[in-house]
Amino acid sequence: MSRFDRVRLVVLVVAAAAALASCTFRFGAREQGAEAVDVEQRSAEAASGTPSASGAAAAPAPAKVEAEAAPAPAAGPADGIVAYACPDGFTFAARILPERAWLFLPGEVRELPAAPAASGARYAEGGTDFRSEGGEVLLQSGATVHSGCRPDPARTPWEKAKLEGVDFRAVGNEPGWSLEITLDGATRFVTDYGQSWYTFPTPEPRVDRIRAQSWYQASAGGHTLEVLLEGRECADSMSGEVFAVTVRVTLDGRDYNGCGRALF
To answer: Structural domain of residue 115, as residue ranges?
Structure first.
């Protein structure tokens, strides 16, 4: 990486830290995605006569979010998201149901109804055709065709987190852990390879723009979480993937080191 690229990286991380502090990470495609993945849930509520939260007066935010070691939460509307990578370098995500599919493409979300297919599954409408068979998918939009696309397990949790409104995500190894920060909600730390879940209210960060660092500290349920985000290049110790932010998480005095990035 050239010196210019390194300087630009630090500048971008400082800008990201400032945006994190002011809670400005909200983009149209992600908002569209959150609405799209919630369609099934709202439809079920309408059919059962149970009013949805969006149709009622907004409830006040909980005063406290407990932190505890617990099993994984129940599946939500974004849990069916799968990220795909195509041989031509194109990437996207999709949520596939028997009756319809949502495609999360760069800058837009498309909802497609199921369509007749000789084999496998097919969803099509308005010049967009999405086919799935034998572990591979084909996506055609007009004259553009992406074929031989396959699920990308490494990217899937990142796409899922983005659609759930998470603003920053980090991962680490030995033991495997992940951190998800939602600025106007909760911070979730999962460790012991997914066996232990801790949830805290997201605090206001302290930001040092000179050092390109942000600190978070929260306590709940008898546990204390500290997070340091540093604008320094970081390579995952298992995959070798390079991230823009170095992360240190301290839970009850134990340090976990890893890498992360903001979810635009």
So the answer is: 81-151
